[in-house]
Amino acid sequence: MAWTWRYQNELGQAVEVTGVEGADEAFPGQSDAESWLGEFWPELLTRGVAEVVLIEDDRTEYTMPLTAAEQ
Questions:
Q1: Using CA atoms, how far apart are residues 50 and 17, in angstroms rounded to an integer?
Q2: In the chain, which end has fewer C-beta atoms inside a 10 angstrom radius, N or C?
Q3: Taking a C-beta distance cutoff of 8 angstroms, is the pair 5, 23 a contact?
Q4: DSSP assigned state of 71
């Protein structure tokens, strides 16, 4: 099983991320992928990523915004 991230803008469109260590990596476990995101999410924001999608092989685990929801 491989865990990867898909990066999207605020409209849900794909964003290609370059220059971020590990952004195109396949992680051996969900916790590895989530730990990486915990470290690099601020850098992703600066590159136009508004939300991420965690994928296990071909299955979507969840989608998560990188910014707080507006109240």
A1: 12
A2: C
A3: yes
A4: -
Residue 39, classed as helix, strand or coil, is: helix
H-type alpha helices, the chain: 30-46
What is the tens place of the pLDDT at every residue in 23-66? 999 999 999 999 999 999 999 999 999 999 999 999 999 999 99
Sole residue written with tokens 């396949």: 26
List C-alpha distances in Å: 67 to 4, 26, 45, 56, 63.
20, 24, 8, 23, 12
Instruction: Retrieve residue 68's tokens.
Output: 């707080």
- Which pTM does this prediction carry? 0.91
Q: 6 in helix, strand or coil?
A: strand
